[in-house]
Amino acid sequence: MPTKAKVITAILNWNGSKMLQKFLPSVVKYSTGEDRAVAVIDNCSDDDSVDVLKAQFPEVGIITLDRNYGFAEGYNRGLEQLDAEYFVLLNSDVEVTEGWMDSIIRLMDSNRDIAAAQPKLMSEKAKDTFEYSGACGGYIDRLGYPFCRGRIFGTLEKDKGQYDTTAEIFWASGAAMFVRADVYRKAGGLDKRFFAHMEEIDLCWRIKNMGYRIVCVPTSKVYHVGGATLDKSNPLKTYLNFRNNLYMLYKNLPDNRLATVMAARMWLDLTAAAMFMMKGLRKDAAAVIKAGRDFRRMKKELQADRQALPHRDTDTLTGMSRISIIAQYHLKGRKTFSSLPMEPTNIRTR
Hints:
Strands 1, 2, 3, 4, 5, 6, 11, 12 and 13 form a 9-stranded mixed beta sheet that branches. This protein is of the alpha/beta class. Strand 1, helix 1 (17-31) and strand 2 (36-42) form a beta-alpha-beta unit. The protein is built from 10 helices and 13 strands. The chain starts with 6 loop residues before the first strand and ends in a 19-residue tail after the last helix.
């Protein structure tokens, strides 16, 4: 089983036999050889995933976990068993393209302060359109709302080459994230308390607080199905997104921003719950309320993280914008990244 290489592409799988059969061939074809390997971390699937891997993909390493640990802890436990300079966290529903690794690894090899990166993420269903989960690189506004080059809230742009510059970003998508193995471990990996959703943004924030850069390299392109685990209208996804966003903010905000941002988010989250109710989405409204309640229960434990983690002034973190993305999108009608009043973050390599 290939558990050691310069670059290991690690795919977390749970009952994804059909996805593996459809998308793993491209990953094996374009991500192996020349000190590159592929491994699947199986989160205790009860379908035929492991049998399919053994029969159809003998060149792929298999790590089997004893139960479903979720996205965050599943990756942590699986990556503990792999030895590489770079990990590539790749969703099982991603089709990769020829040479997709080359420009990213070349850039990271020559810039030791770049700790994580992502390719351009396109929709597998509409291949000329950016994909929701990361598009062309992730940013975050002053109140903790994430957005991307090519995607703001539910508005997805078509790719017309408008974001083809390599740029420093705030977060790289967990659907296809390149990360230095030593930095991943030094940062503590993904936070298992998140279970799933926004754990990669939390990890990237911690990495940036350590002084590293994160980039999107659009010369690398992949196609992502998205929503294969939880549909965007699922109340559980609503709950995880709202709860985990509060977890992330409380852990990583510097002291001089914490009280103001958390107070603003309390009112904004209550407003979101009210909006769900007005639309008849009672379960989603309840999920938002439960997310806030569970966050408050967790504050004491999260406080220990605040004391242990390094914090940097948010004004120094490239990719964290001073704008309010809610105001820009809903009040000013700015639906595309290029229309936002933001400074360019084109990469400066050395």
